[in-house]
Amino acid sequence: MKMRVSALAAAAVLCAAGAAQAAFVVINQGAYSFGNGGEFNAQLTGVSFSPKALSSSGFFETFCLEVPENFQPGATYSASIATFADGGGAGGQDSSGTDPLSELTAYLYEQFITGNLAGYDYADSLGQRKNDAGSLQQAIWYLEDEIALSAVNAKGLAFLAIAANGAGQGLGDVRVVNVYDNSGGKRQSQLVSIPSPGSLVLAGVGLAVAARRRRA
């Protein structure tokens, strides 16, 4: 269940938005990062919105979409906002070489970032928030065709059951932050939730940026 945005729609939104400013992202591991996965703490600059976040610490909590891609924590990278993961990682690519974000992933992340994901130990009162983050990361990787269902643990399966509620609901406010190094190499894709109405504008910007990259 992958969402696609037509090139014509994206172009129309971009024209309405005007020229886009350069965006940058810094991603760090946090107290609840699990192995090579989230929760990560990320900061975006050069954008005209404040991502939804669980805390007021100046960063937003996020998870990665791609298994084989990596970044250096604390480094500053270029970023584009889109409805897909540029390059596609281990699986899920379409004919254009991009990996459209699953609406189930979008629903699951929106539940998480608004503090409404059932069973997630947000307060760490049971000492399980780090483990829950690992389970949620597994569920996201599965939904994005990065790992097999057999690699998802029991808590991750419970999160997948919740994600099924997102079928047919579209992406809502959730988008992908595609991360690039100074040479233009793809380093990772992270999740972000953008308060409406900015999400549609930025989706058009991200599509145009990625299209320019593929033509380069």
Task: Describe the protein's architecture and organization.
With 216 residues, the chain is an alpha+beta fold. Helices cover 30% and strands 20% of the residues. It has a 6-stranded antiparallel sheet with strand order 3-2-1-4-7-8. It has a two-stranded antiparallel ribbon with strand order 5-6. Helix 1 crosses helix 5. The longest helix has 18 residues. The radius of gyration is 16 Å and the shape is globular.
Strand order of the largest sheet: 3-2-1-4-7-8
Counting DSSP E segments of at least 2 residues, the number of strands comes to: 8
Q: Give the helix level as a range of percent.
A: 25-40%
- Average pLDDT, all residues: 84
The secondary-structure element order is HEEEEEEHHHEEH
Distance between the termini: 29 Å
Biggest sheet features: 6 strands, antiparallel
Which radius of gyration do the C-alpha atoms yield? Answer: 16 Å
Low-confidence stretches are 1-20, 207-216
Could you say which structural class the secondary elements and strand pairing correspond to?
A: alpha+beta
Relative strand content: 15-25%
Number of helices: 5
Cα shape = globular
